[in-house]
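input
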Amino acid sequence: MSGPGDPRPVVASGRGVEVHPLGSGQPRDVPDLPASDLLLAWIDDGLLVSDGPNPTGLSNFFVVNPVTGARRLWREIVRLPMPPAS
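output
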């Protein structure tokens, strides 16, 4: 995926998240981003990631600066349990 204002591709793998150059050069790791985080999108403010739902059903979504790795909470979403089938 690439960002709205940044054409560099971003790739998530088991090792973490990397920003790849368009020309020659080596990919650069996004610092301090756990491999367990889910890369969702590259938005105007940075990379949108989620730590996934925890056992209580809460999912935290963060915006991460791809250069510094600084993160800020973007949204908390609670997944409600499904009602039993009738």
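quick obs: The mean pLDDT is 84.
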